[in-house]
Design a protein that fits this description.
121 residues, Tetracycline Repressor, domain 2, 6 helices, mainly alpha
Amino acid sequence: MARKLSLLVCRKPRTDAQRNRESILKAAKEAFTRFGAGASLDEIAKQAGVGAGTLYRHFPTRDALIEAVYRSELKKLAAAEHKFAETMPPKSRRGSQAYLKANAERKENLVPIRQAAGGKN
């Protein structure tokens, strides 16, 4: 019997799916800022203009949503830093970029966020 190998194809998300994801992240950031990590996920979905099923399809757990908001904000910070770094002398720019890169993906940075959400480290 011949075995079929299935290839994992990484496709760019559909435009509407990407728009929904961004709307959820925006609404979640606002909700977590106002109400803390215990903000209602149903209310976040409502504010994003999507159903609860869409929210859970993108973010299966509260922790996944909190982490995605964190990472989204970190990307914005990195973009702002990059723009700011262009105005700095090269030596200062390298130090600033190295610091941000070294700290951007450290799992330890997510521990307080997960703890605040009532999740595990």
